[in-house]
């Protein structure tokens, strides 16, 4: 269906090709997952399918890509529209019309499909994706998962034979992501659609995949990207970044590795017995330090909408807390209110007191004093940056925070080593830009650090570095609150989890209790090893290492 | 047939706009406050009876307020700057002496009934035009109207729609960036203020437009039907010749010394050629309309009502009835012909099919609770 023949692509001004000599064939009806670290050419590989690369982006293409026999060199994206549907990370950015129904019909209108045919196809698509109730809803009132399903529907009404999805779930909460992936797999089963999907969070898609394309940049060399293609088991067994369930399989020596929780559970019997009674060690000593932030009855209103309703929260020195919950459950509003620059209708926030009493209300401090006690990295880190080089941003941050020169640069170097200080912040990758924003905000060494969705768009490597930095901050005595959808990141990083729903805090407790207690939030390892509350592979490995070697081998 | 016509359905947007334009043309032909008032009343009645409950249709009240504001501004300015002292002086404002340079302009002084009435009549006419426009845009979705543009102008229409949608997003992202800067502390240097705000916002807007352009490209926007080269040449020739004809014709009609043959005939020929060019160009754009509104008897009726009102007022000529004289002051009268024509223009309130009323959608909560319960059961 899709054929890459010795494809090499060099973007204008780039010293080396992004992809070099790629040979790949995706047969009809396959759900193929493209994995690999950020910046290794996943988006380029996907963009080649509908001619977006190089027709839209520019660049030098050698070799050729054929989709159903059509050469993308001679067909620009608009002529491949009836063959290839495209779904992007942010569905709202691609919407042209106002309501769900019109959006579904838009592509067909452009192709002059007769009105009667259009009508039936819109109805079919509404049913196929479960959108019938939303048909006349304005697009901007949809939730993330609904919007993404509309985007998929809009691509489908043109009856494409290939669907290309570039990180379709990375902005969604776990439930919404599941909703979208369920829709995708159903399409593969029902319509025999060929689907090519790039995804960072492999744990979500690996089990549905027929094949995996793994892109990897050879360590240490700026050489061309290595492309592996094959059935998911063997490819993932060899890949550098794998979902937790495959990591667990490597540890236990299961061959070939299971990809779904169900398969892993069926093999995990011996491992569960080997681990029985070895209760996981308590994570970081929780609630050890004095309270750094005390919030009582925080309420946030946006017009008639109550975004946060009477939230009580304490953050202690030395702990990392995850703030979880659906999209739109009030996480961001709470963070902004805690930081003091967002609106707060009622309630009290005290920051910087030592333990029980004292402390200042950040909303009353002036911005300069405020950022020295509590800092927030917003969802769009690029909003913070406005100077024209990385070095200038770091110097400015040091001056603003009254820190010793070089503080921000040092933090940046630890987070994302090897950034050229003369680069323009806009030229950095998503992960690097986030690192710079964090470095800028941490220069003042604040006692409370609030991070809003920092893991969005990060690959496994960047995520584990972020986790290390966050834990280090806590070890230095800061209190860290991270709003995140990423269950696996939370399982590895935090000691305590706060869950919000409908603007209220519905659960607050030890990460182990909360994450393992709810199927929607449970990490894969917990699901496999249920009922024992293991959170991540590291814990299991540590427990097995301390066990008698013979017993460890018995896990096989 | 008549029963089918009564079924609720949206009327063809072009019909509404023809009706509203006719009404506007009628209003522009008269300063009689009774007639312009009648135009406003007719528009209001029709809107009240046939307005759909969609978000874009909620703006009529705003247009009414705008019209009233225009009237008020005109009257107040006229009272302040009334130039003539002859007529019936109603009251006298204190006069502000102005420097020599402003000779001929008087601020304050006597206010005459004639001056105020003239301002009121003019203001009402303008208000009537505004209200006609407001009526059209709250009866028919402007976006649906754009879909009925000739094929050659289709892409222009889409650009307009997209631009309208992007504007509020720029405001949102400006707010977001400003809040982000407060997080950094209020030490953005004065020299950097504009840059600190403008750069991220512009960058955001640019990224958004590029993403949208890519998405539209991927969905087939800008496809061209294969058209023989001779057609394309004919299109270019028609359009260019037509535009030249329009230019020459306009010059001919405006310049009294030019030969008559250079006037209207050339203008008409140019317009015809340009229209042909537009039609030919439209052949390259192939598209269809989702759920097209049919053009049936009610559409003919609604459009005819507007055209009739315009025709009657245009052909009535400049009589005293349409332009009530102010010297001497007389009561405006209701001329029978135009009055009946305008009353007929209210008929769309009855002959147009009623709009569909969507039942208030039961707020569809995301199906998570059920889904989660199912998963919990499955996991147990």
What does this structure look like?
The complex is a heterodimer of chains A (556) and B (380). By secondary structure, chain A is of the alpha/beta class. Chain A has three domains: 2-242, Rossmann fold (3-Layer(aba) Sandwich), CATH 3.40.50; 243-280 and 525-556, no CATH class; 291-502, 3-Layer(aba) Sandwich (Rossmann fold), CATH 3.40.50.300. Helices cover 36% and strands 21% of the residues of chain A. Chain A is built from 22 helices and 19 strands. Chain A has a six-stranded mixed β-sheet with strand order 6-7-8-3-9-10. Chain A has a six-stranded mixed β-sheet with strand order 15-16-17-13-18-19, with helices on both faces. A four-stranded antiparallel β-sheet of chain A has the order 2-1-4-5, with no helix packed on it. In chain A, helix 3 runs parallel beside helix 5 and helix 14 (390-401) packs parallel to helix 16. The two termini of chain A are 40 Å apart. In chain A, 54% of the residues are buried. By secondary structure, chain B is mainly alpha-helical. Chain B has two domains: 2-153 and 294-351, no CATH class; 225-284. Chain B has a two-stranded antiparallel sheet. Chain B is globular and about 70 Å long. The N and C termini of chain B lie far apart (60 Å). The chains are: A alpha/beta (556), B mainly alpha (380). The interface between A and B is large, with 81 and 57 residues.
């Amino acid at each position: 269906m899709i054929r890459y023949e010795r494809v090499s692509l060099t973007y204008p001004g780039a010293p080396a090709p992004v992809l070099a000599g790629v040979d790949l064939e995706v047969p009809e009806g396959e759900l193929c997952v493209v994995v690999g670290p950020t910046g290794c050419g996943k988006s380029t590989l996907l963009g080649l399918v509908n001619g977006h690369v190089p027709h839209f982006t520019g660049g030098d293409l050698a070799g050729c890509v054929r989709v159903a026999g059509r050469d993308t060199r001679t067909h620009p994206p608009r002529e491949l529209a009836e063959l290839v549907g495209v779904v992007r990370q942010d569905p709202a950015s691609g919407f042209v019309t106002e309501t769900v129904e019109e959006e579904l019909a838009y592509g067909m209108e452009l192709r002059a499909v007769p009105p009667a045919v259009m009508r039936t196809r819109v109805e079919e698509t509404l049913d196929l994706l479960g959108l019938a109730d939303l048909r006349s809803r304005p697009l901007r009132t949809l939730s993330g998962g609904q919007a993404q399903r509309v985007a998929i529907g809009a691509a489908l009404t043109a009856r494409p034979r290939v669907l290309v999805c570039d990180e379709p779930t990375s902005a969604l909460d776990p439930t919404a992501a599941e909703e979208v992936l369920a829709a995708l797999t159903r399409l593969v089963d029902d319509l025999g659609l060929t689907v090519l999907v790039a995804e960072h969070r492999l744990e979500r898609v690996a089990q549905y995949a027929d094949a995996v394309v793994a892109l990897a940049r050879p360590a240490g060399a700026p050489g061309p990207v290595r492309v592996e293609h094959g059935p998911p088991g063997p490819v993932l067994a060899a890949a550098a970044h794998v979902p937790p369930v495959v990591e667990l399989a490597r540890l236990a020596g299961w061959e070939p590795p299971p990809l779904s929780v169900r398969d892993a559970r069926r093999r995990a019997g011996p491992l569960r017995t080997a681990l029985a009674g070895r209760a996981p060690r308590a994570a970081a000593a929780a609630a050890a330090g004095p309270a750094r932030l005390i919030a009582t009855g925080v309420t946030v209103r946006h017009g008639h909408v109550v975004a946060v309703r009477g939230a009580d929260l304490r953050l202690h020195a030395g702990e990392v807390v995850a703030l979880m919950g659906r999209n739109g459950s009030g996480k961001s509003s709470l963070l902004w209110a805690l930081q003091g620059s967002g609106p707060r209708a009622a309630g009290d926030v005290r920051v910087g007191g030592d333990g029980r009493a004292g402390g200042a209300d950040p909303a009353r401090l002036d911005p300069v004093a405020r950022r020295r006690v509590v800092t927030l990295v917003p969802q769009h880190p690029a909003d913070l940056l406005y100077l024209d080089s990385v070095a200038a941003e770091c110097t400015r941050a040091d001056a603003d925070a009254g820190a010793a020169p070089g503080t921000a640069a040092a933090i940046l170097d630890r987070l994302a080593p090897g950034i050229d200080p003369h680069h323009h912040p806009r030229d950095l990758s998503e992960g690097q830009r986030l690192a710079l924003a964090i470095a800028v905000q941490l220069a003042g060494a604040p006692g409370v650090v609030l991070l809003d969705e920092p893991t969005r768009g990060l690959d496994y490597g960047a995520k584990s570095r972020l986790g290390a930095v966050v834990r280090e901050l806590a070890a230095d005595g800061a209190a860290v609150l991270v709003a995140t959808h990423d269950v696996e990141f939370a399982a590895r990083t935090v000691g305590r989890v706060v869950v919000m729903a409908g603007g209220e805090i519905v659960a607050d407790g030890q990460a182990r209790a909360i994450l393992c207690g709810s199927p929607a939030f449970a990490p894969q390892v917990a699901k496999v090893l249920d009922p024992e509350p293991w959170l991540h592979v590291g814990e299991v490995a540590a427990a097995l290492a301390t066990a008698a070697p013979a017993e460890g081998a018995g896990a096989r | 047939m008549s029963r089918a016509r009564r079924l609720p359905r949206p009327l063809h947007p072009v019909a509404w706009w023809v009706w509203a334009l006719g009404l506007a043309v009628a209003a522009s032909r008269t300063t009689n406050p009774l007639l312009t008032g009648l135009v406003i009343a007719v528009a209001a009645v029709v809107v009240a009876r046939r307005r759909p409950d969609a978000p874009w249709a909620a703006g009529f009240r705003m247009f009414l307020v705008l019209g009233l504001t225009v009237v008020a501004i005109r009257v107040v300015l006229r009272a302040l700057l009334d130039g003539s002292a002859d007529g019936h002086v109603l009251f006298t404002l204190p006069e502000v002496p102005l420097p020599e340079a402003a000779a001929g302009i008087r601020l304050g002084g006597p206010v005459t009934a004639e001056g105020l009435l003239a301002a009121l009549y003019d203001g009402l006419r303008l208000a009537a035009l505004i209200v006609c426009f407001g009526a059209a845009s709250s009866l028919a979705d402007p976006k649906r109207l754009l879909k009925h543009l000739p094929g050659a102008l289709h892409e222009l229409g889409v650009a307009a729609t997209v631009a309208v949608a992007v504007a509020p997003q720029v405001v949102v992202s400006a707010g977001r960036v400003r809040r982000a800067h407060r997080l950094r502390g209020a030490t953005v240097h004065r020299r950097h203020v504009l840059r600190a705000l403008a750069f991220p916002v512009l960058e955001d807007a640019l990224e958004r437009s590029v993403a949208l352009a890519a998405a539209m490209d991927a969905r087939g926007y800008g496809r061209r039907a294969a058209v023989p080269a001779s057609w394309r040449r004919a299109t270019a020739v028609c359009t260019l010749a037509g535009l030249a004809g329009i230019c020459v014709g306009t010059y001919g009609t405006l310049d009294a010394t030019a030969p008559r043959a250079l006037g209207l005939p050339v203008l008409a020929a140019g317009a015809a050629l340009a229209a042909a060019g537009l039609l030919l160009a439209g052949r390259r754009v192939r598209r269809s309309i989702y759920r097209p509104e049919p053009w049936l008897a009610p559409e003919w009726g609604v459009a005819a009502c507007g055209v009739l009102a315009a025709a009657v007022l245009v052909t009535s000529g400049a009589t005293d009835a349409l332009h009530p004289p102010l010297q001497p002051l007389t009561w405006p009268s209701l001329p029978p012909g135009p009055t009946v024509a305008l009353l007929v223009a209210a008929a769309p309130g009855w002959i147009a099919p009623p709009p569909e009323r969507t039942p208030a959608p039961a707020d569809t909560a995301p199906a998570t609770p059920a889904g989660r319960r199912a998963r919990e059961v499955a996991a147990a």
